[in-house]
């Protein structure tokens, strides 16, 4: 049996998952890769910490140079996260002809080009399946299995924390706050949950997926983003009434050659496969012009699922000839130049929840404004609100397909009305027909 | 741009799909593969037939030797189906160092070894993503993306025709016959639907998937098989009452190192992701010891979805170096020897529908037999039956987990009872907990 030495950068959540899998599935990995794998070094900040896994102390190091300068280490697995020093370490490792596996979505989404180009110029392999949707093989799926397609649309539930929160709000009627607390307690949400609940994490992932699906460079700034902090139980109730559910979707559509990129809470029909993705599960739904509708579903995070993707990447590298002088990785994110559509050009249906005075004529004023803006309504629901004076009502409007720019214009005008107390929420509705 | 010549064997459903994709997605395929692809020859039985696609007449041929002896044809795409002459043609083409893409599940499931060995010994690439579940990249998924896992269980809805029929029975209350007629009308079911409705097609596919997932040779004869022809509307009704649905599942489980392989109608909980796979869609649900629960969902048949898999395979071959003298394909179906568990050893819950005389004591007699066989009941439902004399009732029994051998024994005894008119149906229940 051939032998190979590898190194890990990081032994946190994912690093420990990788370590566990390399041990528990040793025989499978050997047979499938053809190699006996030795983890020669692991970079950490603190060698004395209890990590819940038994790792020989002598392989832990705080000095990256021990890895960099060890010629026998052929593959480096970066699972430390963050931009620096992860970026620097990967670039240096590639300069020394080491192949790379990474799970670092943030780095890929913000500075991926430099990394890809380095891999290309050094002729080393660079794999990153774990960077999006943990154990779900969506990167490989797009890069290897959908190559015959023009991808038309991609819709992802790519953040487990927010899906967990929305699931709890939907199925158990919890408030956003209570659901977030539960997610934190269960270890799904991090101490600082902003990146999840404000949609930044999903934004990174959508940038990576879109770049691959459309073979083009995507600047993460071009992904429109809204989080889920404004979703209330009452929105869940209305959604249910419309036979819909609310999910944080990462959406990219090719509309006449321009890409529309957005992350936001979305109402989707209850009978759509994505609507039945609950708890912390992730799923990515793709429409290709040949394959039609396709969905990948699974665990988007966690030590073992993410480790599964990392170790499978490692096996892919071992199955290729790691000693070949020049591998030619096909760079797939610079095949086309695609223009980006502004969010104002998006066409969608909209759910608009407002609080208005309980007076005759209010609805008339609002519908006149909508009509003047060229927006037609699909339904209107008016209900009493718990207020001391019983003088306010909730008015929910659902539009037909319309341009976002028109909605923005109309909302500005509606908000000017003296009878309108509040625009409580606006949620885009996706029926997967456009 | 590099150029490559390929040939198709067959220009039926799938062949036409491949042809259409090669034309409509020409630019994508060129950029992603790095090649301009020329279809130099297409083998058919009848060159004059109208096929709904425009193909230059001079590339159609009825003589396989024109393809075999053309040195410039580097890749052969076999989409003719059947065992012979598909088998012979593929073997001969590999002897001439041509790479192969095939969609032929029947051949792979029954005579795959010989083909794989030939590919291995000739050092040519051999891809067959389309052979299972059409456009869903499940072969690649298992072969490339789950390699870090011990697969524990796999459950597939891998036959679109039967899923369409069962969906119609469930959601529209159609009889089996009416649903089958509709499937035939829509072109989902073939003129001779036996292979689909009796589960042979699913049996082939399960043999292929299991062989890959467990790295072992699977004889298709070792896959237990039951079709859906015995499912009645009343079974659908009971399933609904139990918050379940009935699906034709292809199941493989590793039980203490032995494989349990079976295709049969199965009651599954309505809230399981597989339960929401409707119409002619396919899905494969996998439990891996690292990745956890994973599901792939999409179109299992049709010209374009199947063509998507075939053309993606073609692109994979082109991305590798097709001129390398010796590719080393990793043969993955002979890594382990696995024993097969007999169906009688399966542990499951069972739904048993019987027709019995409407007399006191009947239920007692039956439960006594079940008790004597060590089977405990979870629920019993008794209902009147439309019969002239109103002297019969339907008795539905649902068991807890029990060994199939015990159920067979009990049923034999129950059927001996004079008060028992008929054992109408026995359906295994899968709760995904065992
Ligand atoms: N967690 C998931 O489920 C998941 C899923 C998909 C992708 N990812 C990605 O995987 C990566 C790792 O995530 P994680 O959750 O495993 O992170 P984590 O638990 O915070 O672990 C980070 C590890 O890296 C080490 N490290 C960090 N900075 C270092 C430095 N400057 N020098 C040396 N060692 C350093 C830490 O060492 P110490 O332990 O000594 O502090 C720790 O072992 C991230 O890119 C993340 O986005 C995570
Ligand atoms: N249909 C699907 O959705 C689907 C999905 C997955 C996998 N598959 C697999 O794909 C393969 C093809 O299926 P299909 O539905 O495309 O079959 P099909 O429509 O029956 O087409 C078969 C083609 O092969 C040609 N052919 C058959 N025997 C031949 C012979 N002896 N010599 C020369 N040409 C011959 C036929 O020529 P003529 O046209 O001249 O008769 C026809 O063009 C099968 O292995 C099937 O299991 C199909």
TrEMBL record, chains A, B:
InterPro entries: ACT-like_dom_sf, ACT_dom, Asp/hSer_DH_NAD-bd, HDH, HDH_cat, HDH_CS, NAD(P)-bd_dom_sf
Annotated binding of NADPH, by residue: 105
Signal peptide (UniProt feature, chain positions): none
A GO BP entry: methionine biosynthetic process
Pathway it works in: Amino-acid biosynthesis; L-methionine biosynthesis via de novo pathway; L-homoserine from L-aspartate: step 3/3; Amino-acid biosynthesis; L-threonine biosynthesis; L-threonine from L-aspartate: step 3/5
Name of this protein: Homoserine dehydrogenase
SUPFAM superfamilies reported for this sequence: ACT-like, Glyceraldehyde-3-phosphate dehydrogenase-like, C-terminal domain, NAD(P)-binding Rossmann-fold domains
The keyword Transmembrane helix is annotated on this UniProt entry: no
Transmembrane domains' residue ranges: none
The enzyme's E.C. designation: 1.1.1.3
PANTHER family reported in the protein's UniProt record: HOMOSERINE DEHYDROGENASE
């Amino acid at each position: 049996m051939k032998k190979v030495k590898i190194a890990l950068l990081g032994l946190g959540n994912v690093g420990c998952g990788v370590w566990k899998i390399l041990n528990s599935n040793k025989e499978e990995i050997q047979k499938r890769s053809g190699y006996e794998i030795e983890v020669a070094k692991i970079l950490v900040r603190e060698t004395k910490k209890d990590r819940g896994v038994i790792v020989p102390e002598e392989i832990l190091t705080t000095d990256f140079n021990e890895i960099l300068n060890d010629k026998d280490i052929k593959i480096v697995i970066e699972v430390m996260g963050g931009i620096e020093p992860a970026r620097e370490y990967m670039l240096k490792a590639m300069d020394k002809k080491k192949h790379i596996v990474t799970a670092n979505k943030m780095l890929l989404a913000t500075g991926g080009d430099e990394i890809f180009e380095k891999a290309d110029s050094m002729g080393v392999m660079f794999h990153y399946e774990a960077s999006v949707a943990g154990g779900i093989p969506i990167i490989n799926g797009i890069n290897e299995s959908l190559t015959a397609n023009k991808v038309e649309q991609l819709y992802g539930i790519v953040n487990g924390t927010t899906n967990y929160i929305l699931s709890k709000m939907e199925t158990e009627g919890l408030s956003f706050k209570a659901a977030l607390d539960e997610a934190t307690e269960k270890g799904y949400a991090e101490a600082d949950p902003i990146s999840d609940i404000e949609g930044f994490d999903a934004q990174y992932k959508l940038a990576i997926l879109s770049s691959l699906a459309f073979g083009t460079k995507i600047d993460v700034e071009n992904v429109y983003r809204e989080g889920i902090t404004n979703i209330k139980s009452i929105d869940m109730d209305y959604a249910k009434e419309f036979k819909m559910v609310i999910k944080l979707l990462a959406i990219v559509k090719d509309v006449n050659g321009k890409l529309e990129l957005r992350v936001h809470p979305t109402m989707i029909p209850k009978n759509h496969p994505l609507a039945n993705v609950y708890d912390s599960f992730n799923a990515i739904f793709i429409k290709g012009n040949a394959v039609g509708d396709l969905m990948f579903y699974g665990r988007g995070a966690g030590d073992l699922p993410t480790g599964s993707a990392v170790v499978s990447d490692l096996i892919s590298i071992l199955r290729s000839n790691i000693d070949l002088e020049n591998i030619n990785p096909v760079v797939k994110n610079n095949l086309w130049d695609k223009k980006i559509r502004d969010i104002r050009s998006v066409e969608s249906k909209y759910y608009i929840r407002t609080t208005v005075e309980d007076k005759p004529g209010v609805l008339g004023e609002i519908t006149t404004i909508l009509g003047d803006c060229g927006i037609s309504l699909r339904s209107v629901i008016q209900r009493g609100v718990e207020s001391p004076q019983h003088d306010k009502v909730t008015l929910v409007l659902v539009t037909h397909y319309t341009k976002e720019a028109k909605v923005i214009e109309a909302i500005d005008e509606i908000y000017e009305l003296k009878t309108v107390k509040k625009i409580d929420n606006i949620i885009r509705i996706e029926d997967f027909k456009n």
